[in-house]
Amino acid sequence: MNLRGYLRLAQAPFQTMLAYRAATFIECLGILLRVYLMRFFWTAVYGGGGAVEGITLPMMITYATLSNIQGLVTSSWVQWEVQRKVRDGSIVIDLIRPYGFLRSLAASNLGGALLWGGPMAGFTLAASLLLVHLRPPASPAAGLAYLASLILAMVVNLCLLTLVGLVAFWTLELMGFNMIFEFVSLFLSGGLIPLWFLPLWMRRIAEWLPFQSLAHLPLSIYIGKIEGAAIWMALLKQAAWIGVLSVIVWLIWKTAERKIIVQGG
């Protein structure tokens, strides 16, 4: 398949958003509610005190707000797409089509992140300014680096969720495995609680795993916790994880191709 074909796959999620405008709007409202509640939570945690680990309350509110909003861009449903195709047998049709299965998954999900998640994130960010005070990026360079890190986070998460989806070739059911993954990911990514607030031993474990690429690294760059040459190291770490995870995805996919068990197909 040529580039134009993959671009059509990438546009499909945007067309879905237009078809389900009410559901899209409700999801944005749900995120705004979380933003509002997290503002009160962190205000109560700080209790009028000073900075904690060098992070002031306004910085923490900015971190928590962006953590919720950027999830619209970095999130993906690729694992459920793979499970559905395995369970209903349509995976067989994908295998004989003139495009790579993994490439088609990447095109449709990255397109959804940009064309569906991007507008939703922009709308939610604008609306959140009515509820909380957001600090600007620590510097113009930090703002640009944050955007680059966010794109890398999107790809890292796609790789991780594709790995989760490929489990369906052996189990046919992902609910339990996905729940475990989401809990570990939310906790060790810094999306729920910044990694600076975790015990040192747990922070060290998180630093050796890819999850911090999803939230901790881009948000730390934005608020200035990571700066200077450390920004380049953070971006390099995200890019390295993309390389490692891509190889693992490809190897497991090749194994799954030889072990396709289709339920009802």
Protein architecture, described:
By secondary structure, the protein is an all-alpha fold. It has one domain. It contains twelve helices and no strands. α6 packs across α7 and α7 packs parallel to α12.
| Tally of individual domains | 1
Number of strands: 0
Helical percentage = over 70%
**Residue fraction in strands:** under 5%
Distance between the first and last residues' Cα: 25 Å
- Helices and strands, in order, run as HHHHHHHHHHHH
Backbone CA Rg: 19 Å
Q: What structural class results from the helix and strand content?
A: mainly alpha
Q: Counting H and I runs of at least 4 residues, what is the number of helices?
A: 12
Q: Average pLDDT, to the nearest integer?
A: 85
| Dominant shape | globular
Strand count, sense and barrel status of the largest sheet are: none
Parts with pLDDT < 50 across at least 5 consecutive residues: none
Write a brief structural summary.
The chain has 265 residues and is mainly alpha-helical. The protein has helices at 3-19, 21-46, 57-74, 78-88, 91-96, 101-128, 140-166, 168-171, 175-188, 200-207, 216-223, 229-257. It starts with a helix and ends in an 8-residue tail after the last helix.
List the helices and strands and how they pair.
Blueprint: H1 3-19, H2 21-46, H3 57-74, H4 78-88, H5 91-96, H6 101-128, H7 140-166, H8 168-171, H9 175-188, H10 200-207, H11 216-223, H12 229-257
Helix pairs in contact: 1-6, 2-3, 2-6, 3-6, 3-11, 4-7, 6-7, 7-11, 7-12
